[in-house]
Amino acid sequence: MKKDHIALTVIYQGIPKETLRVVSEKETSKEAWECIKMMYQGAKRVNDARVQTLREELDGLWMKSTESVDNFAMKVNSIVSMIRGLGDKMEDSYGVRKILKATLNKFLQIVASIEQFGDLETMTVEEVFGRLRAYKERLRGNDDDININAEHVLLTKSQWRAKEQKDGGEGSSNNGGQGNKNQKFDNAKVRCYKCKDYGHYQWECEELKK
Question: Quick one: which of 111, 91, 88, 90 has its CA closest to 101?
Answer without folding.
Answer: 111
